Amino acid sequence: MRHALRTTVLALAMLTLGTAPARAVDQANIDKAIDRGVAALKALQARDGTWPHETIGATALAGLTLLECQVPANDKSVAAAADVVRRASVTLTHTYSVSLTILFLDRLGDPRDIPLIESLTVRLLAGQSTDGGFTYFCPPIGDTEVRRLTQILRQRNELKGQRDLPPPGKGKRSVRDLAPEIRQQLALINRMQQGMGFGRMTDNSNTQFATLALWVARRHGLPVDGALARVEQRFRLTQRADGGWSYGPGLPGRPARADAPPPGALAPPVGGMGMPSTAAMTCAGLLGLAVAHGAANDPDRKGKDARDVGKDEALRKGLLAVSTAFGDPGDKVGLPGAMLIGENNGKAYYFLWSLERVAVALDLKTIGNKDWYAWGAKVLLTNQAADGSWQGSYASSGADTCFALLFLRRANLARDLTATLGRVADPGEAILKAGGVGGSDLKSGKREGLRPALAPEDKKASSSEQPKEPKKPKPIPTKVENARADRLSTFLVEASGPEQEELLERMQKGKGVDYTDALALAIPRLEGEAKQKARDALANRFTRLTPKTLLAYMEDVDPEIRRAAVLASAMRDLREHIPAIIERLADNEPSVVRAAHAALKTVTGKDFGPSADATLEERNRAIEAWKKWWKSQGDK
User: Fold this and answer.
1) CA–CA separation, 411 vs 405, rounded Å?
2) CA-CA distance, 505 to 520, in Å (whole number)?
3) Residue 599 · residue 581 · CB < 8 Å
4) How many other C-beta atoms lie within 10 A of the C-beta of residue 616?
5) What is the pLDDT of residues 207-254, one digit of tens each?
6) CA 388, CA 225: separation in Å to the nearest integer?
7) Type and span of the H or E element at 542
8) Residue 466, number of CB atoms within 10 A of its CB
9) CB within 8 A of 319, min separation 6: which ones?
10) Which candidate in 36, 104, 125, 235 could, as Cys together with 388 as Cys, close a disulfide (CB 3.0–4.6 Å)?
C-alpha cells in the first residue's frame, strides 16, 4: 500500500491527486487577503513594539513579514519592531530568534545594523553541533562583547554619515571588513572546532532557520561556508529511503533497493528515535542542500567547486517526496469544509512557509507537476479568519499569519541563492533539463529568452545629405517568455544594500542568458546609482562574449542590450566594430547614441560628435563625418 509523505496536516496528505486542469488563482483575491492579513498582524502588535511571545523571534518574524508585504521600513509598526529587536539582540541566544533577527536586520538594509548581524552570526557559528545541526540555544557572549554592542546602539543616532561603518553600495564585504573583535571571536570558534558539540539534541527545525540566516550573513562577509558544508553533510547522511527527513537527525537512510518503495512513499523509519519523515522537515533538508550548491557555485570561486544542481539525486528524491504532501489545484481545496485547518493540523502554516521557501529559492513553478502556489493559495484563502488572520498552532503570536502572508507574497529571503543556482527542473517533468541554459548559445551568437538576438543587417552608407529618422531595431518575429529572468529582475529591483550588491555581482559573472535578460529587464525599473551599477554589470558581462555575438546584440530590440554591446566592444578595443558602432549613432534611443559616441571616442581618440543636445540634422552630419573618417583609414 502506497503512503504519502507524512505531514503535520493529515488532510493535506489525504487529498486526491486529481487530474483536473489547474485554474489560475485570482490575484485580486490574493491581494485582498494580503491587505487584510497585514492589518490583522499590525493589530496584534503591543505598545512596546513587540508581538505577544516570550521570545523576540516572533517580533523579528512579524517585522520581516511586513517588509516582505511592501510595508516601508519607516512605517511606525516596522520601526517600533526594529527598535526593540535591536535592543534585544545584544544578549540574544535563542536560535530561532537569533536567526530571524539576522533575516529581519538584513532585510531592513541599514548599514548601522552590520555589527549586530556580525555578532549574531558568530553566536550561530558557535552554536552549531558537530553533527551539523542546531538546537534551541547558542552559547552566550562575554561581557566585553555585550558592552561593545551596547555602546554601538547608544551611539547609533550620533553617527554622522555612518563614518565608522561601510556604507551600502561600496562593494562586496569580506572577512577583512569585519570588526577586529568579530575576527578574534571567529578565530576562537575555529580553535574550539565549531562549538565542540554544543547542544547535542539538535533538530532540523532549528537547523533550517539557522541555515537560512547563515546564508544571508554570508553576503555581509561572514565566513560561513564551513558551517554550511556541515549542514549539507548532516542532511546527506540522514536522508531516508522515502526521500524525506524527520525532525531529528536519526541515522543514515537505507540505500535504494530494487524493491524499494516508489519515490515519495513512506519507508520504515531508520534511526531518529523512530520518527518518520515529515513534509516540513523534508523542506528543511532541501534548503540545506540548496545553500551548499549556492556556496559551491559562488562566482568568486571561479568554478573551482562548481556543481550541476540538476544532477543532485538527493535533491531530486527530496522534491519528489515533498510533492506527495500537497494536492493539485484541480482538487476541490477551496470548497467549504475542504482542507480546513484546525487543532489536529495546526502546524499547516509552518509547513506551507517551509514549502514556499524551498520552491522560490529553487525557482520552481511546479513540484511533482503540481502547482504548489495555486494549491497553497486556495488553502490559505479558504482558511483566513474574519479578522484577516490565520489561526493555527502559533496564532497567538501572529506567527501563523506571518507564515501565510510570506507564502502568498512568494517571499524570497535568499534571492542571491536563486541567482546562483541557475535553472532547477521539477523532477516530476517527463523530460529533465538540468542546469542553466544559454551559455553555449551565447558563445555561438544565438539567444533563447525574452528578446531573441537578431542577425546584423548589411550596412550601406547613405550619401543623402537630408536628415534621416533615427534607426529603429528590427522587429522581433516572436516573443519567447523567460519567466525566470523576469523573477530575477524583480529580486534585483526589490533588493537593497549588500543583497543588491551580491545579486549584481552574480548576474554579472553567472553563466546563462537568464542573467542577461534579468539585468536588461531590471535596468529601466532602477534609479540613480543602482541603475548605473546594473548597466555597468551588463556591459562588463558582455566583455566575455565573442565579437560576433556583440555585433548581433547591437541590433537587439532592447536598448539596454544594444547599449551594453556597444560599450563592451569599446572596452575590448574591437576596432573592427567601429562601422557597427557608427550605425548606432542613428539609434532611436538617446542612451544608445550617447554610448556609441563615448565608445567611438575611446576606441579612436577622435571626436566628430554628435553632442548630447544635437538636432537630427547635426547628428546625421556627425554620422557622415565618422563614416568619412573611417573610410579614410583603409587597412590601418
Assistant:
1) 9
2) 15
3) yes
4) 13
5) 999 999 999 999 899 999 999 999 999 999 999 988 999 988 754 443
6) 40
7) helix 528-542
8) 7
9) 286, 364, 367, 368, 426, 427, 428
10) 36
